[in-house]
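Board notes (copied after class):
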Amino acid sequence: MTTDTRGGAALPSAEALLKRLEWTVIRRLDGLLQGDYRTLWRGAGLDLADLREYQHHDDVRHIDWNVTARLQQPYVRQFTEDRELTAWFLVDLSASVDFGSNKLTKRSVAREFVGVLARLLTRHGNRVGALLYGTEVDTVLPAGSGRKHVLNLLQRMAQRPEQTAPGTTDLRDLLVAALGVLKRRSSVFVISDFISAPGWDHALARLAMRHDVTAVRLFDPLEMELPDIGLVTMRDAESGEQLVVDTHDRGFRARFAQAAQRRETALLDGLTRAGVDTLELATDAELTNAILRFADLRKQRSRLANWSGRPGRANMGAHLATRPGVAA
């Protein structure tokens, strides 16, 4: 067993975790996806195949601006899909992801998600790499394949140094570092609770111009609404500041919910501006169902993209919200 000292709970070893995920999640996904696992990562190819006129359903990130300027009409690049995919996990392991009001912390959910997708990918001959962020990007795991490579990634996520010094997370550092590391077009999963200094959405949009990016947003229900449980000591994981609050106070609970809703609105607006798909993972939700909802939404958008030229068809847009009850 390895121990996460900040969360106060023992994390399973990489081998134990991966064995459990292979039996409980990956086998089920193999059956339910029925070989259609590529919908999770579109796998846009790396080789330019052709140029054609822009159509209403096209991804604006594929517009060739040089050709567009010369011909005075929008043109988009078409790529030859690679048989081998490369996926990168950009993982935020700052202090705030150690929070969890249920059995799992956000860090544990992130580790399980990485384990499932990395193993699904490498089992089909693809390669995965990772950048890990605490207070800075201090770990870069080059892309590789095979079960041992996945175990190495999971072990590195579990053996993170303890974040003792207060500070503010700045996801821009992680995203800008990825722009320098990722040389070829890849599928990128940005895994974070997005509790960060502002400005990360611009860096995320830059990353999405070169890669197929999915924002994997971690959250805990207690971050959205406080229960009536009396006096509670609350601690800001980023700054270390502590405050005793009375959750019996209806006005305080209402103000807390309003502030949480404002943060939620700002976050979703930022993700939409960045033009990325979003998979939301809660600490009290089943990982398999979240991944299946996400796969279904990406298949829907893929079908819409193939209906070129048909009048009356709506474009789903870039933001796919997969939390139950949240409209896409």
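Comment from the instructor: The two ends are 40 Å apart (CA to CA). The chain has two domains: 2-45+87-219+272-306, 47-81.
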